[in-house]
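thread: overnight batch results

M.L. [08:02]
morning all. the overnight job finished for the chain we discussed friday. pasting input first so we're all looking at the same thing
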Amino acid sequence: FLRLKSYPDQYIDYVLTPSKRKYEQEILTKAFRVDSAKILDLGYPRNDILFGYNLDFKRKLREKYGIPINIKRVILYAPTFRDAGSLRFPFKNKDLENLNTILEEMDPSYPF
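M.L. [08:03]
and the structure it wrote out:
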C-alpha cells in the first residue's frame, strides 16, 4: 500500500467521477495524485439525458406527456426508491403548504 500511495499515477489509468465541477476535479487530482487529464467527468446518466441536447428525445417526451412546444421548462418531482426507507410520506404539512405557495407564485407556463 505504501508503495502505491507513493506512486499512484503509474497504477491509475483514469479516475471516473459523476461531477462536472472544477473544484471537485482539483480535489480528486490531489487525492489520487494524478494528472487532471486522468479525471473523467462523466456526469449522471439518469439525469444527463434530461439536460442534453437530443432534440428527438425531447420531442418524444413532449408527445408522450402532452407538453406543448410553448412550454419551455417543466418541474419534475421524481423521488428515488430507497429499499430500507419507510412507507410514510416524508413531508410535513407545512412543507407542502410552502411548496404550494411557491408553485402558485411561479409563472403559470411551468407545468408541475
